[in-house]
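[Automated response] Your request has been received and processed.

Submitted sequence:
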Amino acid sequence: MKNKKLYNVFFPIWFLLLFPITWLIAMPVNFVIDSIVILLSLKFLKIDDTFQKYKKVILKVFLFGFFADFVGAIFLFLISSLVGMGGEDSGFFKWINEKMIEPMMRSPFENIYAFLLVAVAVLIAGICIYYLNLKNSFAKIDIEAKDKKKLALYMAIFTAPYLFFVPTSVVYNLLG
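Generated structure:
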């Protein structure tokens, strides 16, 4: 039982973002997704000079997106670490570990508690994406304030780290 728990603590799905090898895949994929969302959003909002505005913001959007993903991952890591510090013998911490943390690491869809915990992490990352882009990435582009808010909202909705919901078993199977 101890090996299983250590295995899950060191290699949960949301922790993949912290492994260097995933950067080789995650960085180009995130850049492409960010680019598509920015370009389509600017077109949808009927903003002139779409490509010029895209070039002004893409690097910041990309970097803030990664930062926001790490904020969400760190939230999950801290929650699981704090529960681990509470001790497994304690009734309350044992319940949280069995009903929230372990299912969250295996598959957030195992129960509502694990799902909600991961949903909070995705929401935290999405809020970070929204505010960081609104206040920084889009601050100096020449578009109306309401369009900046919509653009930041589109980025938050379409680029939040939904991969946190992918069950660990799927990742294990993909990696061999």
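Summary generated for your ticket: Residues 1-15 have pLDDT under 50 and may be disordered. The CA atoms of residues 107 and 167 lie 4 Å apart.
If you did not submit this request, please reply to this message.
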